[in-house]
Design a protein that fits this description.
single chain, 10-stranded mixed β-sheet, alpha+beta, two-stranded antiparallel ribbon
Length: about 400
């Protein structure tokens, strides 16, 4: 993660929370026009928790349920529980942490494939069946929980009895239950009783249908590898494709009605609090012209031209940054659309999980250069892949 002084180090990693910048570069006013927007559910607020990975991936699967179920009425959009996933993830992680004698990162951070694994193994529940707010606050505040769980597993790993008790797993689950609530075994939706597994199936979500793509050169293209970041604690594998293909698949997905669960590094001065993600070239010289021309243009009534300089990311620059630890998985979000600004420049529309904050009420607009330069990976439905790429990757 970049250690830029202009950001709070709240990266979505095992050691910290999902990233939010402290200050923002001063940028021109933008006027956006939507080109393509796929359905999303309401903006949520992860607040003081490192669970961006759960919020973004759950939002992605809500959009998938809308798409697969052809749900046209927003009043009927699903609202899945993030903390059903968080609870199961934390338990599975604790078991693995103990098995590995503590040689695994243990913390709040994770990644989208973790959500997929939980859905596969345990199912999905609606938010009303498990809100996760069982500890006295209306929004997530998980510093205490994170500290308690970490201390618990560290104590177990020390194995003071010289053999593990039969109680430690029950005790760990009990802590989760007290803070997040118990994971429901059954619940009722629209008068029908479900289990988490049967509800997942009713939502038409088949975990086998989802794939994750990444783009780095330290592994061969068109093969799979486990991305070497601490939050990938399950060691889930992603398909490695060239960056231009990575971007073309993203466009193909959005333009054909799919959304994307996006993992990115946002510790960059162009990722602002006010809804912009621009791959700023901080070494570029300021443009010439008067201040008036800069902001309102030369002609009366004409929108100001966008004069921000962006860096040009490449396959090579991405690898250098990954190796130097300046691209990592700071934050999870959902890409759901494409827009253009007043100059016709293309942006991706991004749903965040910081509440209805910023100029666009919880939506960010990210340039192609930012997504190309700062992406770690993304998850999509396999049918969003072009046929030739499916063949190359051996996906049916």
């Amino acid at each position: 993660m970049k250690k830029l002084l202009i950001f709070i180090a709240l990266a979505c990693t095992s050691a910290s929370l999902c990233a939010q910048p402290r200050t923002a570069a001063k940028l021109p006013e933008y006027q956006f026009t939507t080109v393509k927007a796929n359905p999303i559910t309401s903006i949520k607020n992860q607040n003081r928790s490192g669970t961006c990975w759960a919020y973004s991936a759950i939002s992605f699967f809500e959009s998938e349920a809308i798409r697969l179920g052809k749900i046209g009425d927003p009043e009927k959009y699903p609202d899945f529980s993030e903390f059903f996933v968080v609870s199961h993830s934390y338990y599975d992680r604790a078991v693995k942490y103990v098995r590995l004698d503590g040689n695994l990162t243990f913390g709040a951070g994770s990644e989208a494939d973790d959500v997929l694994d939980v859905i596969r193994d345990y199912g999905i529940v609606p938010n009303e069946a498990m809100t996760g707010m069982n500890y006295g606050t209306s929004l997530p505040v998980q510093g205490e929980l994170d500290a308690v769980l970490k201390a618990y597993v560290e104590a177990v790993v020390k194995n003071p009895n010289r053999t593990l008790s039969t109680a430690w797993r029950r005790g760990f689950q009990a802590v989760l239950d007290e803070y997040l609530g118990k994971c429901p075994e059954t619940f009722t939706v629209d008068g029908k009783e479900y289990t988490p597994e049967s509800y997942r199936d009713a939502m038409k979500i088949n975990p086998a249908d989802y794939v994750t793509l990444t783009s780095f050169t330290h592994h061969p293209f068109y093969t799979k590898f486990a991305i070497e970041v601490c939050d990938n604690w399950r060691w889930d594998e992603a398909y490695n494709v060239p960056i231009d293909e990575f971007m073309s698949v993203l466009d193909n997905a959005v333009n054909n009605g799919y959304t994307v669960a996006w993992g990115a590094d946002v510790s960059h001065p162009g990722f602002t609090r006010d809804g912009l993600a621009i791959f700023l070239d901080t070494e570029a010289k300021a443009t010439t012209g008067s201040d008036q021309e800069h902001w309102v243009g030369k002609e009366e009534g004409k929108p100001a031209p966008v004069v921000v300089s962006e860096k040009t990311p490449t396959q090579e620059s991405r690898q250098i940054e990954f190796d130097n630890k300046t691209i990592t998985d700071d934050h999870g979000m959902q890409i759901f659309g494409i827009a253009k600004d007043q100059d016709g420049k293309k942006y991706y529309m991004v749903k965040n999980s910081w509440g209805e904050t910023g100029k666009y009420k919880g939506i960010w607009y990210a340039t192609e250069a930012f997504v190309k330069g700062q992406s770690l990976d993304y998850m999509i439905h396999k049918d969003a892949l072009p046929k030739d790429l499916k063949t190359k990757l051996g996906i049916k």
